[in-house]
Amino acid sequence: VFKFLGAIAVDLGKDRVKPFLPTILTPLYRELNSTYAEQDPTLKNLSQEIIELLKKLVGLEAFSVAFSSVQKQANQKRAVRKKQRALQAVANPDIAARRKLKRHKNKAETRKRKIEFLRPSYKAKKARNHGLKDLAMVE
Questions:
Q1: 139 lies in a domain?
Q2: Which residues contact 101 (CB under 8 A, 6 or more apart)?
Q3: Residue 70: its pLDDT value, please?
Q4: Displacement of CA 58 from its chain's centroid (Å)
Q5: pLDDT value of residue 27
Q6: How many domains does the chain have?
Q7: 43-50 contacts at long range (C-beta below 8 A, 24 or more positions apart)
Q8: What is the predicted pLDDT for the residue at 68?
Q9: How many CB atoms lie within 10 A of CB 16?
Q10: Which pLDDT value is given to residue 41?
């Protein structure tokens, strides 16, 4: 997809690509700023190359305006999601409690995995499966 976006941008030319610049930059920016553990470095490099190509194609000023608008939009989306999560904790405390329990459980499992990786002789205790008890509401 990134190669396609780059090819389209080059094919359209300097003047005709400017209106589509924010649309083209959105996935590239998302890939550059992603913090996934299993991130593919080739994708990141490819997106960086295409951004450089676009910068040369349309000029630094037009590129900067479009890139800053994409950045601003992404930050606004992040802020809205964060606000919704905070509101959900107040509006639906049961869902928030379940999410918190799940997060703590995952954190404990991650810690055990790290310890087992660092010290192979050490075996962490596995949590017992309580079945219905895990589904019960916590107050």
A1: no
A2: 138
A3: 95
A4: 27
A5: 92
A6: 1
A7: 43/2, 46/2, 46/3, 47/2, 49/6, 50/2, 50/3, 50/5, 50/6, 50/9
A8: 95
A9: 10
A10: 83
**133 token code pair:** 């008890």
- Residue 21, judged by CB atoms within 10 A of its CB (0-12, 13-18, 19+), counts as buried
pLDDT at 36 over 70: yes
What single letter denotes the amino acid at residue 21?
L
**Domain of residue 1, residue span:** 1-118
Does residue 127 lie in a domain region? no
Q: How many residues does the chain have?
A: 139
User: What one-character DSSP code corresponds to residue 19?
Assistant: G
DSSP count for the chain of H helices, then E strands:
7, 0
70-126 per-position pLDDT tens digit: 999 999 999 999 999 889 888 998 988 999 999 999 999 999 888 888 887 776 666
What does pLDDT average to over the chain?
86
Structure tokens at 44: 């990141």
Residue-wise burial string across 41-79, b where 16 or more C-beta atoms lie within 10 A, e elsewhere: eeeeebbeebbeebeebbeeebbeebbeebeeeeeeeee
- Separation of alpha carbons 55 and 59, rounded Å: 5
